[in-house]
Amino acid sequence: MLKEFMLSVSILALLTSCSSDTLSEAKNNINAVAVNEQNVTLQVSKIENKNYTLYKKIKDLETVNTILNVLQQVPWKNAKVSMSHMPDYKIVAITSNPQVSYIQETYDLWISPKQDLIEVIIEGKSKYGKLSKEDSTLLLKILETQ
């Protein structure tokens, strides 16, 4: 799952950043991502006193894969939304390998009052989606355990 995420992020980065890359250079970049996938860390921030602070770093490959898979499965809609409060969590995927280029995305998450659904946007993009109850429960369990 992480391979697919990193592969799609790499392809997007290659297409948008350097249109003059040759096909062999693009293949080398994609292979570098696949080899170095274990270097991905998810940084989860939580709001405290109107500011976001680092809540936890998730380095466990299985947990990272689970979270990224859930975020990939979101049925995205092209929409700009205005929420009534700031996001409950922010998730950013960071790679520790400086040779891997990718577009860093920040996911903003809002938890419903009943704690059973999560709404998510990708910062800086007009992407909005709602997780299923099952995915919301899974993600909340991961986010709320220390």
Mind explaining what this structure looks like?
By secondary structure, the chain is an alpha+beta fold. The chain has one domain (39-144): Immunoglobulin-like, CATH 2.60.40. Helix content is 36%, strand content 28%. A hairpin with a 6-residue loop joins strand 5 (106-111) and strand 6. The longest helix has 16 residues, at 2-17. 21% of the residues are buried.
What characteristics describe this protein?
single chain, 146 residues, alpha+beta, Immunoglobulin-like, seven-stranded antiparallel beta sheet, 4 helices, 28% strand, globular, YhfM-like domain-containing protein, YhfM-like_dom
Supply the CATH architecture. Answer: Sandwich
Roughly how much helix do the residues carry, as a percent range? 25-40%
- Total domains: 1
Biggest beta sheet summary: 7 strands, antiparallel
Secondary-structure class: alpha+beta
Instruction: Report strand order across the widest sheet.
Output: 2-1-4-5-6-7-3
Query: What is the strand tally?
Result: 7
SSE order: HHEEHEEEEEH
> What proportion strand?
25-35%
CATH topology: Immunoglobulin-like
Pfam families: YhfM
Organism: Paenibacillus pini JCM 16418
Domain YhfM-like: 44-144
Protein name: YhfM-like domain-containing protein
